[in-house]
Fold each of these.
Amino acid sequence: MAPNQQKTPNAILLIEESEAFRLLYRTILKALGVAKVVEAVDGISGYREYVMGQFDIVIMAYRLPRKSGLDTLREIRATRRDARIIMLTTENDKKTVMECIKAGARYYIQKDLSARDLKKKLKEVFNLIL
């Protein structure tokens, strides 16, 4: 790969309750060149989508209805140890971050970033974990 070439995942599973956040992420992911973005609105449907599909990366909220993001993360990691999972949250305390990392998240992104900063952060993360 050339030094300045951007790594881009082909397929992403986005698990997020908020329609507004899903729209924002979908728009940014498409702008970054992600070919397929599959969406789920809670932990139960997110896990179901995960086992039925093939995803390079899972991006999921920490707080989800029906099953928490942390429980969903653990379930996905139990199914596939090498899953690449990025957690999204408005939480900014070290305990939450460490809990996600210990459970197997590869990266942690604050939800309240501007669209420009979010796009930049996702580019950085893709290059780190792909």
Note: The domain at 11-129 is CATH 3.40.50.2300 (Rossmann fold).
Amino acid sequence: MQFGIFTVSDITRDPTTGTTSSEAERIDATVQIAKKAEEVGLDVFAIGEHHNPPFFSSSPTTFLAYVAAATERLILTTSTTLITTNDPVKIAEDYAMLQHLSKGRMDLMLGRGNTAPVYPWFGQDINQGLPLALENYNLLHRLWREDVVDWEGHYRTPLSGFTSVPRPLDGVAPFVWHGSIRTPEIAEQAAYYGNGYFANNIFWPAEHYQRLIAFYRERYAHYGHGTEAEAIVGLGGQAFIAKNSQDAKRQFRPYFDNAPVYGHGPSMEDFTEATPLVVGSPQEVIEKTLTFREHFGDYQRQLFLMDHAGLPLATVLEQLELLGGEVVPTLRKEFENRRAPDARAEAPTHASLVAEKYGEGPTRQPTPNANQGNNLSGPSPYEDSAELAAEEVAG
């Protein structure tokens, strides 16, 4: 099972000091957080995509490529890649490049996002969000698996003889998770393609996500990818950890009370009772996280949100020490001991997907060549221009 953290990249005022980080400070801090995640033995680091204040992560592939160069083992992913407002051609290019630069240590999570103004900023209509998400991923799926694509849809110009470059590393597309908190059509799409389904599991009671995850599992089996127990499920979570429960509650309370999302609403105690948030000792975090399996069945990826609401970098790094040093080792053992014999143990990785595709045989890495026309076959589109250039030189 994979354990890690995800960030929404918010730049929020620290309610205990009244200070707010600059963009440069917050970006640098998040790099340090990612490096710390690897240092303490976590498996995954994820960052969201936002195009509005108070967030900074408008270019997650750029950020993750930098982190890839600064780490050796960490799987790098997104907690949202906007499949609605990004052109699927650009997603195909950007994430294939990240796949190469990270030597396969990446995947991505697709989502529609929850910021309505983003749609018109990128020339789209939020009322078309769901059909956009479905059509755009259908195209993205083909761009990574077909060397030459002819395609026509409703929301972008047609493609004729198009090759997305670079081609996926080893000829294996990046693994995709579909994130959704409310839409069965997205769970259906994840199941149809045999992709992963991720429920952020932060703000709402377990019953809400149970229905979507159960539906995804049933449809995953329906499409012949495996049994319901073999479906690929990821969950979010949220924790604030201290050596003892009293210190955790005292330290986190001002951040909870003033957090942009849930501040000035329910009490911290009521919120932790109703949602997956846990504020307490390492043992309390362990015990609550283990209940996720009781609600949702065996799953393959657990990510925690731990750096939001204005928490200072030093506090986040202390949290990661406790998460990696005391919480995750116990969770690994307990989840493994409790896992059903027929359940999938691990989420797909680049190495496992390569092994599944090629076995012990050699991998395939296409070498697109513009001199052969549509990058792979056919007459060169540059022949006429080359002849004209030669004539000009000769003349």
Note: Residues 2-369 form a domain with the TIM Barrel fold (CATH 3.20.20.30).
Amino acid sequence: MAKQRPVSRPKNLNLLSIRLPINALVSILHRVSGFLLFLVLPLLLWSLQQSLQSAAGFEQVRALLAHPFAKLILLSLAWAFFHHFLAGLRHLAMDVHWGTGLTSARFTSKLVLIGGLLLTLLLALQIC
């Protein structure tokens, strides 16, 4: 019977302690933001319907969105939208082989992260 060599396996499978490359982080956040936007779509459509139905419905939605917790949720959704949009543009550019090198991929990943946060901050300054 031949002696088998031991298989080299990773020693640390704790996903919270593994340091992901920035490209992987942007890709994962792109999926998370798309899922988040998909989940809240029915709520957004309901609030649009309520606000267009009558003046009282509009005032109800307006009062609901004036609450600080609602503003925090809206800012989270705004970040999800901005990040998903910018990461989607990045993916489209990579589909036509622009920015596929390691250096440019890292740079565009940083641009997506910073751009999403800056756009969210600008919106936060407008609504608060």
Note: Residues 6 and 12 are 17 Å apart (CA to CA).
Amino acid sequence: MKKILVSACLLGVACRYDGKSKPDARVIALKDKYALIPVCPEILGGLPTPRIPCEIKDGRVLNCAGEDKTAEYIRGAEEVLRLARIFNCDTAVLKKKSPSCGSGEIYDGSFSGKTVSGDGVCAKLLKQNGITVLDEEQIKELSGGGL
């Protein structure tokens, strides 16, 4: 059975910045066709749950109190990449807009809810290493068995 990485929050794990989860029935249903490997780059990078929200601004990951958390985000991304290699995953389904997991669109760093084109730290590293990154809105090809 093919293994894919999945943001743990999309599977119902309470690991988001606010201490909650974002379970997505479409993502959870992938378990019928794939072995799902849950990951949370922020937790793997050493950040607590709950935690102060972070966004990317000028290439750095800052929380809304102005503290630089870039090192933790990089460490978490590296750990997720390590898991991808251990489990031979070539695909990941990650939470959209997240400063770690966002793929193609992330929050703009103003903490106003506005988004910009770009990738989160983990999504970017996975893509740079040849791993296909999808968000929860893009999984139609997976649920149809296309990947």
Note: Strands lie at 3-7, 35-39, 54-57, 60-63, 91-94, 105-107, 115-117, 132-135.
